[in-house]
Amino acid sequence: MDKEAILAQLKKDEGFSAKSFWDFKQWTWGYGTKAPSGPGLLISVEDAEVELSKHVDGTIKAFDKIFAGVEMNEVRQHALVNMIYNLGAAGVLNFHNTLAAIKRGDWKAAAANARQSLWYKQITKRAERICKELERGVILNGV
Predict the structure, then answer these.
(1) Is residue 142 part of a domain?
(2) I want to staple 113 with a disulfide (CB 3.0 to 4.6 A). Which of 62, 77, 98, 132 is the partner?
């Protein structure tokens, strides 16, 4: 798994915010990482990159646990790491039909099931790219 490629994609998907802001269930800053409680707290780009890297390390460990023994190419691995980064491992574990399809290698069904989720409705552009990457197994830049 190419951690540098994952970091680059997450930077693009998450964008950078030096100031903390409320994001669904928590205060967020930097590249979508958890911030201390409170609005308007500041983080530097350098510190945000350190936090991003640490968070990606944990996300990759979660991926390894969730998808142990599942054969897939690197594009699909990166797509699922991106999804776990966005939703958290617990959130991804709620995608029962999607996970079942992935474990049987039915990538078309996995993508179709993911498209039925609230996650997909909330972040459609990013989610659609991830779903297409799962389905096709090829990188889709700019989609």
Answers:
(1) no
(2) 98
The residue range of the domain holding 13 is 3-136
Question: Tokens representing 21?
Answer: 């802001």
113, 7, 120, 109: which is closest to 53 by C-alpha? Answer: 7
Q: What is the pLDDT of residues 98-120, one digit of tens each?
A: 999 999 999 999 999 999 999 99
In the block, residue with structure tokens 């993508």: 111
Structure pTM?
A: 0.92
Distance between CA atoms of 87 and 112, rounded to whole angstroms? 18
Structure token digits, residue 96: 């029962």
Contact assessment for residue 132 and residue 139, using Cβ atoms and an 8 Å cutoff: no
User: Please, which pLDDT band fits residue 143 given cuts at 50, 70 and 90?
Assistant: very low
Give the Cα separation of 12 and 109 in Å (integer).
27
| Angle, in degrees to the nearest 10, between helices 3-14 and 45-66 | 120
Specify which residues 49 forms β-bridges with: none
- We report the CATH number of the domain holding residue 75 as 1.10.530.40
